[in-house]
Amino acid sequence: MSFENKKVVITGASPDFGQTLSILFAQMGAELFLSARTLEKVDATAKLVKEVVPDAKISTFQVDVSKPADIEKFAHGVQEVSGEVDILINNASYWLDGHLAQADDTGIVETINSTATGSILMTKHFLPLLKNSKTPDIVFVNSTASLENNTHSTVNEAFSAAKSAQSTFADRLRHRMKGQGVRVISVYPPNFDNPSPLDDEQWNERRSHTELKYLTARNVFECIKFALSQDRVCSIDKIILSNNNASATEVIDEA
């Protein structure tokens, strides 16, 4: 599928899944507006994308999604380049693992501010640009850690709460935007590996349910691409992924 000339905003575009998204959307012809907590990280992603797609159009921004002023400045910066945005991917979040009692207060606040408040404010400030598009889509890269009764072996309770808030926000926004042409898509992956899409062998590896392995970024990206590629009359609101195995690294409820 081609995303030729689509204007795509990706938060958390540092060397992880955000970088993977950046490479793949550039390969499909999109113009990118990338943000990360530091310019060093987002510029590293832009440099890598340019090595793969030399003619890619990329604008980079330093954005700490826990800071409202950074988010507002980001939206204004994008508006100076383009009067519209076609796809907003809320990918940035602050991971926190371990038990609640083990986490320091600062980490808990950062998790809530980055993951929940950050994605809400990001959406608010980019909505005017999205509404100028004929094909506006908002994608939330959520987590199965936000789901009720989901057993997750490593995630902190505060991270689950932040992702749950993000999920509820997406649900309410979807209801509010119904009939206005703005699709709101939430993808809920479990833990997943992030092989580089530039490594064909690793990226295209097919994993069996008999292997004690995670899903990969390819599985997650293909779900996002599938949802975005549907006719505008069709909105795939939620995609929930799970590991179809008895992975030694996940807690499985046998009851």
Automatic annotation (TrEMBL):
User: GO CC annotations?
Assistant: cytosol
Q: Which GO terms describe its molecular function?
A: oxidoreductase activity
The entry assigns this protein to a family as follows:
Belongs to the short-chain dehydrogenases/reductases (SDR) family.
| Name of this chain's protein | Short-chain dehydrogenase
* Gene3D superfamilies membership: NAD(P)-binding Rossmann-like Domain
The protein's UniProt keywords, in alphabetical order, are: Oxidoreductase
| One Pfam family named in its UniProt record | adh_short
- Carries keyword Nuclease? no
